[in-house]
Design a protein that fits this description.
The complex is a heterodimer of chains A (412) and B (106).
Chain A lengths: L6 E5 L3 H12 L5 E5 L15 H4 L14 H4 L2 E4 L4 E5 L4 E4 L5 E2 L2 E4 L3 E3 L12 E2 L4 H10 L5 E5 L3 H12 L3 E6 L11 H13 L3 E4 L3 E7 L1 E7 L4 E3 L2 E4 L3 E3 L2 H6 L3 E2 L1 E3 L11 E3 L4 E5 L4 E3 L4 H16 L10 E6 L2 E7 L6 E7 L4 E8 L2 E8 L2 H13 L5 H5 L5 H9 L1
Parallel strand pairs in A: 1-2, 1-7, 2-3, 7-20, 9-16, 10-11, 10-16, 11-12, 19-21
Antiparallel strand pairs in A: 4-5, 5-6, 8-17, 13-14, 14-15, 18-19, 21-22, 23-24, 24-27, 25-26, 26-27
Helix pairs in contact in A: 1-8, 9-11
Chain B lengths: L2 E5 L5 E5 L6 H7 L19 E4 L4 H4 L4 H7 L9 E3 L12 E4 L6
Parallel strand pairs in B: 1-5
Antiparallel strand pairs in B: 1-2, 3-4, 3-5
The chains are: A alpha/beta (412), B alpha+beta (106).
Chain lengths: 412, 106
């Protein structure tokens, strides 16, 4: 492999960084790979953190993307519990928080994102927690015991999943959402209404349009104060109000950034030997003809694969429509595509039956689907989104026409 | 400890010891078995842990659930004995199970 890079460093040992390393070895790259992460654990799956792991159904080791032996066996130098402090583009070095600098010929930045903090009084009280890492969940687990009062701030995927687990574990859960609907950033109103009802039926107090003023307590949080003066007493607070990309290293190095590190279709940043992948990357969204930043497993895996392939000069992976899922109670929500910009919505099935789907259309073409306990709608929907298929709304809404037939007609 | 054998598309066999309650997918990941991607980590959301179950075990392993069957529509070269390995939990009576991984998961 003449001309191939000899030393590749990857900052960020999450799903994207890990994938880049795995794909490099899978493609036969024989040079040095250094994978650096600031968390103590090797690369692991984050999605179960707010689901099965929080519920106590899995031990941490079962989340690891690869067994620990994988790294030495594949000659990947995995450095955990140590943060990159500075990227020097001129000398091609990474300065580390401790220990020697790391030299690279090509670099992948997969630093991910961090939970957004609420700029309100008391946000630094003990017991005001977030959920991003294994250690975050371990803290939350200590408090999330039967009978405890938990306030969840923010009704996105993380907040709702944790609230569902809390209710199932016998906690008294209150959800505070500033917007008039839950999941409003990621899904359409029908889905929001359905999940609000589901959580209320589980005994959770869901407050929409809530105005949070601050957290109260002496050392440890004891209540959440709302505008108007009401205080909701609590033992623990989980704040899940979105994430911010970890851009600092890239910005300081002078790489082009917006709401993410700007990369091209090859995963390349404004420096030709520096790549970015995962939550931190502002990337072309080929199915939508625009750029954006995605926070998902699909995006992390795809970005890692793209970066690895580009560094080796090989063909990249087939690009998938963005996909997401969320497990709450007995409900599996599967989403394909991005619904932003939709000008029509079609509901297929009946929300009362707890199995239904919402298709989002723009100018007559399917751009996204949210499917609740409806795998065929998701599976075929994903193909419709990828094909930008034009499907008549009446056909999508008609349960007497199978999804298979809808998919076949759209393909013909 | 039930023994599970993974056969790759070239016919190479790898036998490992499984643990009851863990899935055939997790066991593959734990033992670095190539040919199983498991992008979603076992949430039945991606269909990248597709395997073919050995004929001798198809009855014991059982049929996929409706959700899994739909997800299998995503996989390529699906056959009568196709399953998603994240949905097969290891139990004593699956000792000796053989599964074959497809050429590609995407």
């Amino acid at each position: 492999m003449s001309g191939a890079p000899q030393r590749i460093a990857i900052i960020g040992a999450g799903q994207a960084g890990g994938q880049a390393a795995y794909s490099l070895r899978q493609a036969g790259f024989e040079g040095a790979i250094t994978l650096v992460g600031d968390e103590p654990a090797p690369p692991y799956q984050r999605p179960p953190l707010s689901k099965a792991y929080l519920k106590g159904e899995l031990e941490a080791e079962r989340l690891f993307l690869k067994p620990l032996e994988y790294y030495p066996e594949h000659n990947i130098d995995l450095i955990t519990g140590n943060a990159a402090k500075k990227i020097d583009l001129a000398s091609r070095q990474i300065e580390m928080a401790s220990g020697p600098s790391i030299a690279w010929d090509k670099l992948v930045i997969a630093t991910g994102a961090r939970p957004r903090k609420l700029p309100v009084p008391g946000a630094d009280l003990e017991g005001v927690l977030e959920l991003r890492t294994l250690s975050d969940v371990d803290k939350l687990k200590w408090s999330a015991v039967k009978g405890a009062r938990m306030v969840v701030v923010g009704a996105g995927y993380i907040g709702l999943e944790a609230a569902a687990v809390g209710a199932q574990l016998g906690l008294h859960v209150t959800i505070l959402e500033a917007m008039p609907q839950v999941l409003s950033r990621v899904a359409g109103p029908e889905i929001g209404v359905f999940y609000t009802r589901t959580h209320r039926e589980a005994g959770t107090d869901v407050r929409l349009g809530a105005k949070l003023e601050g957290f109260e307590g002496q050392g440890h949080v004891s209540g959440v104060r709302l505008a108007g003066g009401e205080v909701i007493p609590c033992d623990v607070v989980l704040v899940g109000v979105g994430v911010l990309p970890n851009l600092e290293l890239a910005l300081e190095a002078g790489l082009t950034c917006g709401n993410g590190i700007v990369v091209n279709a090859q995963g390349q940043t404004s420096h030709p030997d520096v790549y970015a992948a995962g939550d931190v990357a502002w990337r072309p969204l080929v199915h939508y003809g625009r750029d954006g930043r995605l926070e998902s497993v699909h995006n992390a895996i795809e970005g890692g694969k793209i970066a690895a392939a580009s560094m080796l000069g090989g063909p990249g992976p087939a690009l998938e429509v963005p996909w997401f899922w969320s497990d709450q109670f007995d409900l599996k929500l599967q989403t394909a595509g991005l619904w932003t910009g939709a000008d029509a919505q079609v509901i297929r099935g009946d929300a009362q039956s707890r199995a239904f789907a919402v298709f989002y259309l723009k100018e007559g073409r399917v751009i996204a689907v949210d499917a609740v306990n409806s795998a065929p709608e998701y599976v075929v929907g994903r193909k419709l989104v990828a094909a930008k298929a034009a499907v008549a709304p009446a056909e999508l809404a008609d349960k007497s026409i199978s999804m298979k037939d809808i998919g076949a007609r759209a393909a013909s | 400890m039930p023994k599970i054998t993974y056969i790759d598309s070239s016919g190479k066999e790898r036998q490992v010891e499984g643990k009851n309650g863990m899935t055939v997918m997790e066991t593959a990941i734990k033992h670095n078995i190539p040919g199983i991607d498991a992008d979603c980590g076992g949430a039945c959301a991606c269909a990248t842990c597709h395997v073919y179950v050995d004929e001798a075990f198809t009855a014991k392993v059982g049929k996929p659930s409706a959700m899994e069957q739909s997800m299998l529509d995503f996989a390529e070269n699906v056959k009568e004995n196709s399953r998603l390995s994240c949905q097969i939990k290891i139990r004593d009576d699956l000792d000796g199970l053989k599964v074959t991984t497809p050429e590609s998961q995407h």
